[in-house]
Amino acid sequence: MEKKIMSCLVLAFGLMIILVLNASASAADGITCEEALTQLITCQPYLLGFGLPPSSTCCKGVENVSQQANTTTIRRSLCECLETAAKEFHIIPERLKQLPQLCEIQVPVPLDPTVDCNT
Fold this sequence. Notes:
The chain is mainly α. The protein is 64% helix and 0% strand. Mean pLDDT is 80; it is low at 4-28. Residues 20-109 form the Bifunctional inhibitor/plant lipid transfer protein/seed storage helical domain. InterPro entries: Bifun_inhib/LTP/seed_sf, Bifunc_inhib/LTP/seed_store, Plant_nsLTP. It comes from Castanea mollissima.
């Protein structure tokens, strides 16, 4: 039963990614919203409250996205993308904020769906 629920959640998460991508601009010459969300999809169970700690593949995705967020323009674009995704997917904000610490990764911007992406 739990496996069936997780399968439904993964399918719903994938569909929501498509909706977010259609509403989000891509970063010029850098990682796009689509690429970032694809790399972070393995974090979904943790971010929705299933399982602790985040998986190693989740942490690797966070690390990859963080490394590719190497300009202010890209970071701002990803911030807006992730902010929208967090709201759309009903991500638990506290879990999102804990990702860098749990994955032992430095990120260039706070992982917080309430942060002002323009600062």
